Amino acid sequence: LAEQARGLATAAQNTSDPTQRAALQDQFNEVTNQINGIAQDSGFGGTNLVQSSPDDLEIVLNEDGSSTDTVQGIDSSAAGLGFTTADFSTDAGIEAALSQASTAVDTVRTSSATLASNSSALQTRINFTEDLANTLESGAAKLTDADLNEEAANRLSLQTRQALGNNALGLAAQSERAILGLFG
Question: Does pTM surpass 0.70?
Answer without folding.
Answer: no
